[in-house]
Design goal:
With about 250 residues, the protein is an alpha/beta fold. The chain has eleven helices and eight strands. The protein has helices at about 10-20, 35-45, 60-70, 85-95, 120-135, 145-155, 165-170, 175-190, 205-210, 225-230, 235-245, and strands at about 5, 50, 75-80, 95-100, 135-140, 160, 195-200, 215-220. Strands 1-2-3-4-5-6-7-8 form an eight-stranded parallel β-barrel, surrounded by eight helices. Helix 4 runs parallel beside helix 5 and helix 10 crosses helix 11 (about 235-245). The radius of gyration is 17 Å and the shape is globular. Bound molecules: pyridoxine-5'-phosphate. Pyridoxine-5'-phosphate binds near residues 9, 101, 201 and 223.
Length: about 250
Amino acid sequence: MILLGVNIDHAATLRQARYRQAGVTHGGYVEPDPVAIAFRCERAGADGITVHLREDRRHIQDEDVWRLGASKTTRLNLEMACTPAMTEFALKLKPHSVCLVPESREEITTEGGLDVVKHREKVARCTDAMNAAGIKTSLFIDADEPQIALAAKLGAPWIELHTGAYANAYYQPARTDEFARLCRGAEQGHAAGLVVNAGHGINYVNIAEVRTIPHLHELNIGHSIISRALFSGIDEAVSTMKQLMNP
Ligand code: PXP
């Protein structure tokens, strides 16, 4: 059974589109509340909730994360940049897991995997701190041999394979190669003793193939679920994705 982590960042994106200036997300009628959405996702079958607290705070806010930490009924996975400030935040919050992602202010969403080879020392420092605090670290990386080989040495128990390039190539000839690359990466990670997750760009069409990547533990899915919820509601969007993942 493949687990589903629902990324609720885009519910916060919608709220910020109207309430960016409000600064606070409580004490008044502010919609949509991402924490209420998270609760509904959990009730509909999500196995965990993922949020990305970005340095520019463009969607999820600190207060959302604290409220989620207190109210979640499943697991909280905090996506974050590998910085001292975010490490300190995570150590205070104590989520079930953190997922280290690259971050640049210009990108619309996370556009590539974290280069753990280039940022080895920073990643090692952050992973060591999380391990000492009993927080699982996941490394969001491209399915490339050197990245996975080093991830296994850095002491992080999980990797999340970046499925964005595959999703972008879905209607192109390059899809075959991108899919093969993900399968090879999953095999390599599993053989090295890593728990293999995947995420980015997974939707209700490509899930039929994504779910056949070997050794998948959990998929983190955001945009397609929040988008579908506009038509059918969040309960249907989550439960249908869960069914498609595990037919
Ligand atoms: N996993 C990671 C590490 C991400 O950065 C994102 C995007 O924020 C996702 C999963 C979810 O991607 P999507 O919104 O395309 O489903």
